[in-house]
């Protein structure tokens, strides 16, 4: 019999995050949403009225991301956390407290901060992408401090960020022995992020989210990566490189001053 859980889904005011939250609510779980600002929070409440609450934080802002962790911890322990919030494109958009582009802050630094500060749940799901295969796999200049705005291009930045988030997931998996950790490529879906021409269905992507949030999958093992429709996938071999994982972790530590718990 399925046990009901407490689940937090970041970036759940629209798209995949919202649909995953809706389905989890329909299945009887206690689900907390997350939105970037109050206007989006109101939209999320309307779109998913059965949710237990909505947390508000701009994940491109380090201070707001810390605040989100504090507010989530105050709610109690979670059974699952889905790090769904993400950015695909747009200008450099220098963040106010770190000076990095918003894509790197939201896609990589925010899940790192939340992984450091949130009490470890039973299950963590990091949202990756098949586009990690087009990344620069050196993990150099993760946050664009050396290259700067003049050299910034959003598509390579996105590809790199999704490679980095898989490195992060695998680093967390090695540390959190009592937590099932997965990274997921949900598919190329016609959401605001994916664009109208995307060929995959929302249902196929969300099915994997729901399965992993509920823990109805294969036994935990480091480096787990899923494709759409609940299929076990095979990420780039470099994502299993432990020194590379630790290089990414160190870059995050240097910016935040936070250390992943063991």
Automatic annotation (TrEMBL):
GO molecular function annotations of the record:
oxidoreductase activity
Q: Which UniProt keywords apply?
A: NADP, Oxidoreductase
- Fetch the Gene3D superfamilies from UniProt: NAD(P)-binding Rossmann-like Domain
- Annotated organism of origin: Aspergillus carbonarius (strain ITEM 5010)
UniProt xrefs under SUPFAM superfamilies: NAD(P)-binding Rossmann-fold domains (SSF51735)
- What PANTHER family has UniProt attached to this entry? CHAIN DEHYDROGENASE, PUTATIVE (AFU_ORTHOLOGUE AFUA_4G00440)-RELATED, RETINOL DEHYDROGENASE
Q: Which InterPro entries match?
A: NAD(P)-bd_dom_sf, SDR_fam
Q: Which Pfam families match?
A: adh_short
Per its record, how is this protein called by name?
Short chain dehydrogenase
State whether keyword Magnesium applies.
no
Say which family it is in: Belongs to the short-chain dehydrogenases/reductases (SDR) family.
